[in-house]
Amino acid sequence: xxxxxxxxxxxxxxxxxxxxxxxxxxxxxxxxxxxxxxxxxxxxxxxxxxxxxxxxxxxxxxxxxxxxxxxxxxxxxxxxxxxxxxxxxxxxxxxxxxxxxxxxxxxxxxxxxxxxxxxxxxxxxxxxxxxxxxxxxxxxxxxxxxxxxxxxxxxxxxxxxxxxxxxxxxxxxxxxxxxxxxxxxxxxxxxxxxxxxxxxxxxxxxxxxxxxxxxxxxxxxxxxxxxxxxxxxxxxxxxxxxxxxxxxxxxxxxxxxxxxxxxxxxxxxxxxxxxxxxxxxxxxxxxxxxxxxxxxxxxxxxxxxxxxxxxxxxxxxxxxxxxxxxxxxxxxxxxxxxxxxxxxxxxxxxxxxxxxxxxxxxxxxxxxxxxxxxxxxxxxxxxxxxxxxxxxxxxxxxxxxxxxxxxxxxxxxxxxxxxxxxxxxxxxxxxxxxxxxxxxxxxxxxxxxxxxxxxxxx
Length: 458
Prior knowledge:
With 458 residues, this protein is mainly alpha-helical. 63% of the residues lie in helices and 4% in strands.
């Protein structure tokens, strides 16, 4: 076999989506682990860093895929993502938190239903609110739809903070059309500015119990405690296991949206994205297709919000500011709109390098070196250069890493817009038909579906 053939086989291997995803994830994890080893992290620290990285890869990958259904497939400019995330987790908390009798120790309770019911209710509620937003807003396009969706997300956030919905009394019976519901809770609510304590069942434990894996899981925890981490390793292992659960969720998201994109429904969505007037002229009810896509994407965003915040133990309205929405947009732009593989890769790269990376670097430096107190302001940090001492500036930079990563995100975004606006995997040729449309007598390979022009064929 010649060197050219070997190179061709290697290039063909890396053009496969699965190989590309595994290569990117492997590189990220290897970089984190090697950095931890170089700076003296122990096993607990390594597992914590891997758990955090996996968690953010999972949530940003999920939400970038959901956004890809709106923007990448249908061309719907939704910048109210965090609003649907908030609806999902708040409805889940309202349904699944244990009930608290009036006058009890806790201020706000819930209906105490099983967590699976709460998650289903949160996803359905996010989809229904997506329907309410979409019905009037889908008559609008581009910037106008963006204004409506971001306004909606802010309405949701201020509703969470409102004293009107902080607590309210539940009647003894609730008539739900065909049946009557007798709630056990006397007082429920959204908690106002103080937020809610998520004291319902742990999602990881609930899933493992449903799969009859809880006892084996506790056995693994006990084994790790005996042999590797003697002091309470369960929170660390829980973080790793929950991150793996999120990656499984990403895989399910990916399969669902890939099948959607390759279906006749998905091809209509892409036609709407390219030219809605042409799709209308071909007899497609574009309003119905856009409405369906928006509701489905909103429900998936609600599920992403549930999985993101359920592991935190509490939620507050400031967690749902618009910056989360723009983080997800950056992740999608990095990977490339219109590509499910690109959406996930964009979420992984954003999580590993731009979101968690600067904070992880700060933790590594603080673990490896004895650093003093950081200057209180930028002037004091710059004053050290007068005596040729750069340490005050270094300490101030490390202390301000949260603000610094926003600057890094902005620089990366500007570079992408100038040099690769289509993202890493954007503008791939897409299948235009599931059957061979090649004319007899042409040089095209038999049985190969025709492709819509979208750039380099992958």
